[in-house]
Predict the structure.
Amino acid sequence: MSLAFQAFPAPAKLNLLLHIVGKRSDGYHLLETVFRFISLYDTVHLAVREDAQIILETPTPGVESTQDLTVRAAKLLQAYTQCKLGVSIRLDKKIPMGGGLGGGSSDAATVLLALNQLWQLHLPRQELQALGVQLGADVPVFIFGRNAFATGIGEKLSAIELPPAWYVIVHPQVHISTAKIFQKLKKTVLTELGVVGIMRILKTRQQRSNDLQSLVLGAYPQVSNALNELKKYGSPLMTGSGSCIFLELDSENEAKKIYNLLLDKYCVFLAQGLSSHPISS
């Protein structure tokens, strides 16, 4: 079978702040956060199949193909719509795993968005978001397609406008389990700030916080070292449940200078803040 692959981008995200504000009866934590898309991408290559098979041609070492989020996303969409088509998937990974950048969730969202087009399903984004949350709490924002203020477990989204910015991101090259970090969280319900309070904090980088950061720093000295290194240049923050540490900057030139200073010491990325997901519909 000769297959024609098409390439689709899957951007990374940053949590510009992260507050834990409660816990549901099922164990999931409630939060307030701001998601920002950045110009660091995985690329998902998809080719429609006529035999209804879902095949991952580039399995990730240590991850069963059936458990890969791209495969799960394709199978979920196929079952939900009773689509008779299949897909072959190739993944070009650039977003580090376990870094809090949402790579796996973004890949899954891109599969849902792209197959909605390729399989000519024409589902609205809101319906795809409801499917996406079954795959993970970060999947809906990538389908939503805009930088967002998020509540609930991250699935309740409100679009927000964010100013232009550049980011230097250090990956300490440790993989952090989100589940294990949340298990260590002892905080009970915190005060919800709401979108107005969150937007006020966003204007001052020094006031931003991540409620999971101290837990990660205490357990992973590599992350603490990366944070201390970036503190030389500004007010860095951990994204998500870690392990990546980022520094927000106003200009590309300023970001490039810091990026070049860190290249010999760390696995480091330079990325521009995006206003929307590159897959527009």
